[in-house]
Amino acid sequence: MIEGGYPLEGEIRISGAKNSTLPILAACLLCDEPMEISNVPHLQDVTTTIELLRLMGVEVTIDEKMRLEVDPSSIRRYFAPYDLVKTMRASILVLGPLLTHFGEAEVSLPGGCAIGVRPVNLHLDGLRRMGADIRVEEGYIRARADRLRGARILMDTVSVTGTENLMMAATLAEGQTVIENAAREPEVVDLANCLVRMGARIEGSGTDRIAIDGVRKLHATHHEVLPDRIETGTYLVAAALTRGHVRLRETRPELLDAVLAKLREAGARIHPGANDIEIEMRARARSVSVKTAPYPAFPTDMQAQFTALNAVAAGTGTVTETIFENRFMHIHELQRMGADIRLEGNTAIVQGVEGLRAAPVMATDLRASASLVLAALVAEGQTLVDRIYHIDRGYECIEEKLLQLGARIRRLPEGNRPVAEPAIRAAAAVRLSQA
């Protein structure tokens, strides 16, 4: 429940990146020793990944500062069941590590996704080129390989998880693997940095050509997850939308060039530091036009938030989505709050209005849920945002952080909402109070 009309003021700490944490947890399967991962965010997707690892027999412990120790030496099964994979498509990331380290893997097909089709053929085609025997039977990917062999893999389209899966598989393959048209996202670089610390030989991460020379064995290391650039961008938009003044600590401004450029175009004053960003916006925002594309262009994960900003900005802005074909489901909910938005194919034409009105709304996916929370922060009256389990997948303690910035927000009991395991919830509460 959110009561709108209060500008955000103050400072908060940015959490670790979900999209780095999940592949790095999968990368722990590549060695036989306990790995230590810090700056892990308290998120439902992290909990799901931990459940998946534990189901395989991996030992995972968590301390009060959300540091994880992942010990894969006790692994008993190389299996990812449908019940877990269907709730989080990133579970497919265990396929490459299991196959290259243990020679076999059985992973459920992810199935459909609310925001659009994200086929796994890029993963499978790449692994086949590396010599894997892969069959898809009864909804499961069944893969076998004595030892993968290096190969040149040209990806038909840019895929973050595809790049990550193949890069992890190549670390223990025989010979060199070259991934062409690779994803350049910072989270791919973060995974590569972790793998290099484990003893992998990787060159070119952050470019569209990554070369991996396989080694016989990887060892454990400690890795600190990089800050979440999408969480950072979401709170920057929240400050701009509410005409507030916010400082975000422990983040990486250089990872947000496209987002910061659009916020400046909207009229925000932005002061990036070495590891913080300050934003101030006292007047009504100006509409901006954005078009999503792979990094370093404007991220698809910020599209919904800028749609909400344009909804109350002066003028008309267009939001064009080129990554996913069904990522405009939040628009119907924004229209319920009085937004003037027209859809034409993969483009939303947003005519800014003077103000939004509170209404019951329903989240349909992770970033859509964030856009509804942002819209509610400026809507007149009290807005009820339902199905918030989506937001718990990607935003750590969002209501507590917004409360720290002066928002009027509270979480209501909901019997069907997934709840993170107590150890993670307790650790997150401790860390938030320290921050």
Put the structure in a nutshell.
The protein has 15 helices and 25 strands. With 435 residues, the protein is α/β, with parallel strands linked by helices.
Strand runs, count = 25
Oligomeric state of shown chains: single chain
- Helix count from the secondary structure assignment: 15
Distance between the termini: 24 Å
Chain-averaged pLDDT? 92
Low-confidence stretches: 112-117, 416-423
Major sheet: arrangement of strands: 2-15-17-16
Estimate the strand proportion. Answer: 15-25%
Helix/sheet category = alpha/beta
User: Measured on Cα atoms, how large is the radius of gyration?
Assistant: 21 Å
Report the biggest beta sheet as strand number plus sense, adding barrel if it closes. 4 strands, mixed
Shape: elongated
**Percentage of residues in helical conformation:** 25-40%
Describe this structure in words.
With 435 residues, the protein is an alpha/beta fold. Helix content is 33%, strand content 22%. It has 15 helices and 25 strands. It has helices spanning 18-27, 44-55, 82-85, 95-102, 121-129, 160-170, 186-197, 229-242, 257-266, 303-311, 330-336, 366-378, 389-392, 398-404, 422-434; strands at 2-3, 9-13, 35-38, 59-62, 68-71, 79-80, 104-108, 133-137, 140-144, 152-154, 176-180, 201-203, 209-213, 222-224, 245-249, 269-272, 276-280, 290-291, 316-320, 340-344, 347-351, 361-362, 382-383, 385-386, 408-409. The protein has a four-stranded mixed β-sheet, covered by helices on one side.
